[in-house]
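Entry type: protein chain
Record version: 2
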Amino acid sequence: MFNIEEELKKLPNQPGVYIMHDENDTIIYVGKAVSLTKRVHQYFQASHNEGIKKAQMVKQIRRFEYIVTDSELEALVLENNLIKEHRPKYNTMLRDDKTYPYIQVTLGETYPRVLFARHMKKDKSRYFGPYTSGFAVREVIDLVNKLFKLRTCSRKLPEEQGKDRPCLNHHIKQCDAPCQGYISPEAYREKINEAVKFLNGDYKSVLDDLKAKMEEASAALEFERAMEYRDLIKSVEMLKEKQKITYSDGEDKDVIGVEIDRDDAVAQVFFIRNGKLIGREHFYIKVRVDESTEQILENFIKQYYSGTPFIPRYIHIQAELKEREVIEDWLTMKRGQKATIVSPKRGQNEKLVELAKKNAEMVLSKDRDRLKREEGRTIGAMKEIGALLNLPDINRVEAYDISHISGFLSVGSMVVYEKGKPCKSDYRKFRLKTVGGPDDYASMYEVLTRRFMHGIKEREEIGNSAEEMQYGSFTRFPDIIMMDGGKGQVNVAVKVMEELKLDIPICGMVKDDYHRTRGLYYNNIEIPIEKDSEGFKLITRIQDEAHRFAIEYHRSLRSKNQVKSVLDDIKGIGPTRRKALMKAFGSIEAIAAAEVKELAEVDGMNTNAAEAVYGFFREKDSEEV
C-alpha cells in the first residue's frame, strides 16, 4: 500500500521529474522540478494554491514516482518525452501532432537531387523549410527541376551510369541525363549551386536568364520554346509574389501569439525564413482554466520544439517566461547553435507578435462558433433524445440492421455512436449462421445474442475492470440500443436482454409508410419527435448509417460465385439454365426484374422454370432491412 505521507519524506532535494498516478495506476500528470522534495510537497499542502484544476487532480492522486536528473535541463527534456509518450490528463497538451515538409538538396551525392522530405536528418543534405503546405513544396520542387534540368530518378550515380536508357525527361529536354554521363559532375554541380541560390530567394538571375532565352527563341521563330520560357517566368514570378513580405534583418525566426478561452487555447505561429514570411500555422491546445499565458507559452514551446527538427535563431513571444533561460539552453542544445526567446516591446517585431495573437484570436472565435454548432448536432442532439426518453446520461448508442435478398446471404450490422458521432472503429458486421430464409426477427435475435454473449465472455476474461473495458467494442456495452423498426424489433431485443440478464434500455426508430423516420418506440409507447430538431436529425443519421453498413457488407459478399448460389437455390435451375440466364440478362438484378414471359424465352427454360425464378424473387423486395 502506497503511503503518500511516508513517501513524501523520502523525496530528494534534487532536480528531476515527478509522475502522478490515479487509482487505476494511470499517469495523470508529469512535472519537473529543481527540487523534487519542495515541489511535490506543495501539492499536498492545504495552504498552497495550485488552482482549481490542480486541486481536482490532487484528489485523484493515489501514488507518485520520480526520476532524479543531474540538472534542470535534463529534467525538462525528460518531462517532454514523458508527456509526449503518456499524454497525461492534467498536462497542457497540444492537440496537433503535425510534421512539416522540407525541400532537401542531397549535396552528399555526386549528382544531387531536389526532394520532398518530412524530416530533417543529420546528413550532408541541405534543407529548406519547414513549409506549411506540402502541395506548395511539390510545386517548388517541380519548378526547380524544370528550371535547372535536374534529375528526378533514384539511380545510384555514377555507379549505375549507362546501365539503362535515359528516361522520358531527357527526351523532352527536362533532364541532362547524368545517368548516361552526358553531363559531368562539375557542370551538374554548378546547376545545383544555382538551384540552392534560387531556393534561398535569389530569383533575379533566374528571371534574367529566362527572359533572355525567351527573347532568343522568339527571334529565332521558335515560338513553342519561347512559350515554355514564358510559362517558367510566370511560375517564378508567382513564387516571388508569395514571398514578397520581407524583413530587413534576414533572420530565421518564429513568431508566436496565443489566445485563450477557458480550457481551450490557440497558438498561431508565423514562420520567417531568411527574412521572408513563408507561411503560418495554428495549433489547438487543451489547457487548465487557471493557467496563465506565460505557462501556456512555456508548455507550447517545449512540446512544439521537441517534435520539430528545425529550430530558428529567434522565437518571438508575447510574454516573458519564468523558465526562459533553461528553455533557451535546451533549444540551443537541440539546434547546435544559439537560440533566443524574445518578448519584444516595440518596433516591427512587437507588431508581428500582436498580429500573430490577433490571428489566434480569429481562429479561436471561428472555432468556437463551429464547435457550438457541432455540439448542437452531436452532444446536444443526444441530450434531446435522452430528454424524450427520460434517460439523461446517454453517451454510447448501438444500432442494428439486417440485409439480405429473399433470405440469401443474410447479414447483420452494428453501428456505434458516441457523443453523437459515429465511432467507426467499433462497427461490427455479422454473417448469419442459424437463420435460413427471410426471417428478420430471427436474424436480429441471432445478431444481438452473439454480440452480447461475446461481450459477456470478454468481460469475464478481463475481470470486469472498468479501465480494461475501454478496449474493444464488445466489452463496452451501450447506454441504449436503437432498433431499426417498431414494436416487433424492440421485443426481439428485449427478449435477448432478459435471457442474458442485461439491463440496457431499448427503443425502436419507427418509420412511416414512406420509409421516413417518424418517432421513437419506447416502453410500449410511440413518442413523436419534432422533424426540425437536432435529435430527429441524429436519429435519421443513425438509422441511415446502420442501413448503409448492412447493405455494403451484403453487397461485398455477392461475388460471382455467390450470385450463382442464389440461382442454385431455385428449384429446377441447374448449372445449364443458370449459365443461360446470366448470359441472357447479364446480372442477378436484371433476372430478378424480368417477367415470366422474358424468362421463358431464354434457351433451355420452360414456363415452369420461368415461374419458379419469377416467384423466388417476388417473395419480398429485392433488399430488405
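Comment: The longest helix spans residues 347-377.
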